[in-house]
């Protein structure tokens, strides 16, 4: 597996190209991502969104049109792709496949596990490929995603953090912003964040 990453736009949202067996998956093509994505793929097979916020989905439609490949996104966040709820002027995009919660997908022979961790958004998910987690805005290095946006839920965030604490396996985490980390490292600080979220409820 090969993983390429480039921060995109003012929010430096990480866009990933993940190559498995010569096939490329594009994760979260954000603002201005198209040129870099096209230059860094040879056999693209799908676009995957971790969640629906504008800085992660901005170039969905443009990349989809340029590469003629399907778009996968969490079902609970499709309204964000289609309707620009935060009023950012996001180009609308339409998913070819709505991912339903914790769903295991076979995409051109690549096993892709979506793990649903709502809170930051209703559909917020980790995309698991092999021993790697592409965590979007759920987990960052020593931090977590915000839970105070429209459509966010502190109650759901607490449940998601409790859920991730029960996973007894190591993964390398590639977040939507910032540098990579590991699940074991983040499990050491997640109890702190659970208490921080609870104090806002």
Structure description:
The chain is α/β, with parallel strands linked by helices. It has one domain (2-198): Metallo-beta-lactamase, Chain A (4-Layer Sandwich). The chain contains seven helices and 14 strands. Strands 1-2-3-4-5-6 form a six-stranded mixed sheet, with helices on one face. Strands 7-8-9-10-13-14 form a six-stranded mixed sheet. A two-stranded antiparallel ribbon has the order 11-12. The protein is globular and about 45 Å long. 45% of the residues are buried. The model has no long low-confidence stretch (mean pLDDT 97).
Question: What features would you highlight for this structure?
Answer:
31% strand; globular; 7 helices; six-stranded mixed β-sheet; 201 residues; Metallo-beta-lactamase, Chain A; 25% helix; alpha/beta
Q: Structural class of the secondary elements?
A: alpha/beta
If you compute it from the alpha carbons, what radius of gyration comes out, rounded to the nearest whole angstrom?
16 Å
Which spans have pLDDT < 50 for at least 5 consecutive residues? none
Q: What's the CATH topology name?
A: Metallo-beta-lactamase, Chain A
CATH class: Alpha Beta
The percent range for strand residues is 25-35%
Helix coverage percent: 10-25%
Q: What's the number of extended β-strand segments?
A: 14
Order of helices and strands: EEEHEHHEHEEEEEEEHEEHH
Shape: globular
**So how many helices?**
7
- How far from one another are the termini? 41 Å
């Amino acid at each position: 597996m090969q993983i390429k990453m480039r921060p995109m736009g003012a929010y430096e949202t990480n866009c990933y190209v993940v190559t498995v067996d010569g096939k490329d998956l594009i994760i979260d093509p954000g603002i201005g991502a198209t040129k870099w994505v096209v230059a860094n793929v040879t056999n693209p097979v799908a676009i995957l969104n971790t969640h629906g916020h504008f800085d992660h989905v901005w170039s969905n439609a443009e990349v989809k049109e340029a590469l003629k490949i399907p778009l996968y996104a969490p079902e609970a966040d499709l309204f964000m792709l289609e309707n620009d709820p935060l009023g950012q002027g996001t180009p609308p995009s339409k998913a070819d496949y709505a991912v339903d919660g914790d769903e295991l997908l076979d995409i051109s022979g690549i096993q892709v596990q979506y793990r649903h961790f709502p809170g930051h958004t209703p559909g917020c998910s980790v995309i698991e490929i092999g021993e790697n987690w592409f965590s979007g805005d759920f987990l960052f290095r020593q931090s977590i995603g915000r839970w105070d946006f429209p459509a966010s839920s502190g109650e759901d965030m607490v449940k998601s953090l409790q859920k991730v604490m029960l996973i007894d396996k190591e993964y390398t985490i590639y977040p939507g912003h910032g540098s990579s980390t590991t699940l074991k490292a983040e499990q050491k600080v997640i109890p702190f964040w659970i208490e921080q979220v609870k104090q806002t409820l």
